[in-house]
Amino acid sequence: MTFLKVNNLKVYYPVRGGFFRRVVENVKAVDGISFELNKGETYGLVGESGCGKSTTGRTLIGLNRATSGEINYKGKNLAAIKPKEFNQYRKEIQMIFQDPYSSLNPKKRVLDIIAEPLRNFYKLTAGEEMHKVQEVIEKVGLNSESIYKYPHEFSGGQRQRIGIARALTLNPQLIIADEPVSALDVSVQAQVINFMKDIQKEFNLTYLFISHDLGVIRHMCDRIGIMYKGQLVEEGNSQDIYDNPMHIYTKRLIAAIPEINPSDRLNKIKYRKEVSEEYNNHSNKFFTEEGKAYQLKPVSKTHLVALP
Ligand SMILES: Nc1ncnc2c1ncn2[C@@H]1O[C@H](COP(=O)(O)OP(=O)(O)OP(=O)(O)O)[C@@H](O)[C@H]1O
Ligand SMILES: [Mg+2]
């Protein structure tokens, strides 16, 4: 059984207008995406701002309601169950957010921030709770005194570790990480990413890793989905995506990555020119008349591209 299988998921936001606040149109934030996650892997979701990455993640943990489609998690369709029944899965599926400044309540001590999910699900004694909190705070590499402090007393990287500790308290299986390092310094980014990889091994976690940063995605992900306007235009492992991108949108993303290696710089400039020409002359062949992406089709065992 596939661990998580998303099938033709659509999430529309109603836009209301006029005197009666009627629904005048829908923002098609997610417009029919399908992908699978295997246990223990990291799947990266990449695409420009507003393409529907966060909406996808939020829908998987039940913060948004699916308009249609299926979210099969260990054989159960989460898109069709009642909100109350969803509670049981809240433990197993956790989210880490982009901004460690605003996602932690500034008025609460770290102890209370980390213990909150535990309090929602279990009736633990103060001693049991303390034990669990100490355990996760050590796992994320903060010292045990930290739990009596407030979020503002930590650096950005430390705050993100607190957010991760909070997500770990309930022994989750799937973590949706929505731009978890985008608000951090480059040097701190690497630390947090490596740390996320370590705990992934230790707890056998599956990640849906959302980012617009192709460098971070390459370092982190086993498989990658390229999202454009609510649809997937390409999916593959990092070799497929970085060495052999086939959809014009993916090519443009890859061409835009700065080349650090001086000896490859000229090649990159040439590639950028080719992609730009292809985009100017042939971009319409990659989209339908309504400007939508085609269905993903396999071009190899691992590589799928939305081509006519
Ligand atoms: N609550 C909402 N009501 C109406 N429209 C929304 C709402 N939330 C998001 N949208 C719209 O849905 C689309 C997808 O938004 P989403 O936040 O999923 O994008 P994203 O890929 O995460 O972008 P970013 O990289 O900027 O975080 C956008 O066009 C956005 O304006
Ligand atoms: Mg987002």
Automatic annotation (TrEMBL):
Listed InterPro entries: AAA+_ATPase (IPR003593), ABC_transp_ATP-bind (IPR050319), ABC_transporter-like_ATP-bd (IPR003439), ABC_transporter-like_CS (IPR017871), Oligopep_ABC_C (IPR013563), P-loop_NTPase (IPR027417)
An annotated Gene Ontology molecular function: ATP binding
SMART domains: AAA (SM00382)
Domain spans labelled ABC transporter: 4-254
Keyword line: ATP-binding, Nucleotide-binding, Transport
Stored PROSITE patterns: ABC_TRANSPORTER_1, ABC_TRANSPORTER_2
A Pfam short name: ABC_tran
Taxonomy, superkingdom: Bacteria
Family (UniProt): Belongs to the ABC transporter superfamily.
Protein name (database record): ATP-binding cassette domain-containing protein
Organism: Heyndrickxia acidicola
Species classification: Bacteria, Bacillati, Bacillota, Bacilli, Bacillales
